[in-house]
Design a protein that fits this description.
Elements: E1 6-11, H1 20-34, E2 38-43, H2 49-52, H3 61-73, E3 77-81, E4 98-100, H4 102-111, E5 114-117
Parallel strand pairs: 1-2, 1-5, 2-3, 3-4
Helix pairs in contact: 1-3
Length: 118
């Protein structure tokens, strides 16, 4: 029997100036809810703000509040690239997330059946 497909979303657009991170989160939640693929979302560079800033300060920030918990509830991985980790220490955490090193992200990329970059 073949293993389940895995989808990796690498999000590096700035959620303060682009709708792309919020849209990636919405799409990832939809795939995760389907339950037929393992979903991982890694926020890199300015996209880490989706995990560390006030959602209302971001374009389509309600998508992060609605869909990040749905991804986690479906067993999906939500992570930030370690080099990009920073942000507002007082901002609420919409969802707990992992921190990946660059080599861990590379290994995750190699194992993914599909890789989407936003």
């Amino acid at each position: 029997m073949a293993s389940r497909p895995s989808v990796l979303f690498v999000v590096d657009s700035d959620p303060k100036s682009s709708h792309r991170p919020a849209e990636a989160t919405r799409i990832a939640a939809g795939i995760a809810a389907w339950g037929r693929a393992d979903v991982s979302v890694c926020f890199c560079g300015p996209a880490v703000a989706a995990l560390t800033e006030w959602p209302e300060d971001l374009i389509d920030g309600d998508n992060f509040e609605r869909f990040l918990p749905a991804i986690a509830k479906s067993g999906g991985l939500i992570a930030a690239l370690a080099a990009a980790e920073s942000g507002n220490a007082n901002a609420p955490r919409v969802v707990d997330h992992s921190t990946l090193k660059a080599d861990e992200l590379a290994a995750l990329s190699v194992r993914a059946t599909q890789l989407l970059r936003f």
